[in-house]
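Dear Dr. H.,

I hope your travels went smoothly. While you were away I took the liberty of generating a structure for the chain from your last submission, since the lab meeting agenda had it listed for discussion. I wanted you to have the full record in hand beforehand rather than looking at slides cold. The sequence, exactly as received, is reproduced here:
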Amino acid sequence: MSMQSTGLIGANVDRVSAGTTTDGANAEFPLGTRTSGPDNTEYVYVQAGEAITTATTSPNAVAIDENYQAKLMTTALASAGHELGFAPIGSSIDLIPDNAFFWARVNGANFNIRVSASAAADTYLRTTITAGRLGTASTASAVVFTGVVLVTAASASTSASNSVREVLMTKGRAARSGASTFVN
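The corresponding predicted structure, in token form, is as follows:
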């Protein structure tokens, strides 16, 4: 587990802390607090709106709503305008329990996310049929995140369903182009 330094005293972006209700009670920081780290990384403090598995074999893209509740990203949640973030993976914690608090990464470079098999490098990522997993395959209903690209392509092999690849992510706003939905 790597410790990221931030400008916010007491913030450990690798920490997950217990919560008991969905209203932010007992949070270490106000929900929605933002902090930064190296490589232009930005984090937002959120509360899990459901249990989120964070093992390297699990999807980790999350949708962050206006109340800073995080759930695995789906096409419906992306279409509703929820902010894209990523739960920490590869740490000593394999599960973020429902109502727990954590720092979701919402911007930066040189970090890993779980993607679908055959996801292409240098191509915008989009929602897939698996909640929390992004890919590059084009479907009519997928929401495209124009600010998120893979550095290295994911393999097409059978084991690639567990592909973890380095990503570059920049922030932006949602835009519509014809029948497709693009989120930047």
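Two observations you may find useful: The mean pLDDT is 80. The chain is about 5% helix and 40% strand.

With kind regards,
E. W.
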